[in-house]
Design a protein that fits this description.
By secondary structure, the chain is of the alpha/beta class. It has 7 helices and 11 strands. Strands 3, 4, 5, 6, 7, 8, 9, 10 and 11 form a 9-stranded mixed beta sheet that branches. Strands 1-2 form a two-stranded antiparallel sheet.
Amino acid sequence: MIVLNQGNHLGIGDTGRKSDDHPAFIVPVRSLGQEERVDGFGMVALKKMVGWPAAVLFVLVLAGCGSIEDDYEIARFDAVDGELVMNGVISSSTPIDLRTALDENPKIKRIVMVDVPGSDDDYANLEAGRIVHERGLTTVIPSNGIIASGGTDFFLAGKKRVVVKGARIGVHSWSAEDYTALDLSKSDEEHEKYLKYYKSIGIDPLFYWYTLEAAPPEDVHWMTDSEMKRYKVGTQYAARP
């Protein structure tokens, strides 16, 4: 798999973790809009974002040629039946795109996250999350929804957070070019932007430390139902949205 970590560093990871609850995907990724969909999900991998679990993952990366947005589908917000449906990678344009979508649809109070594998800009991701929280929006992961890494951070910003049975939530640690989060002491300032974010949206900082231990940057851990409830990931768990 390919993981673009903090500092815009490209790296190749090994085969993703498998589990009985969340079997591996085989996803040959070619270019924007051309991801194969396996079991209904088309996945890519970026900074603060997971490389989706895969038995075989073929990715061609042309480093230094074009922007991330040239190679991957950035997050979009589509107004559907009184909700914003979100798909794609959270990027530098996401805060503006989110504000625009909300301003154009002022009655919408729910964001349904169908396929949000992460972010390629941590600061933009946290800014977008604060918009969600400040506006008192509800975030929803439907039964066929799958989010991870920066996508999980965004979901947690919802004042109300609905997890529908079958939804998948992935977490992992982060890394810079020459170190990982766990190489740093807990008092290191590198942790502060995440800890301040979680505090601002009402999430226990223990969740942050849990994610660092849950899986290394090149892997992903899919949260169990008990873990979701322990860390209060959702405010409501439903059989239907």
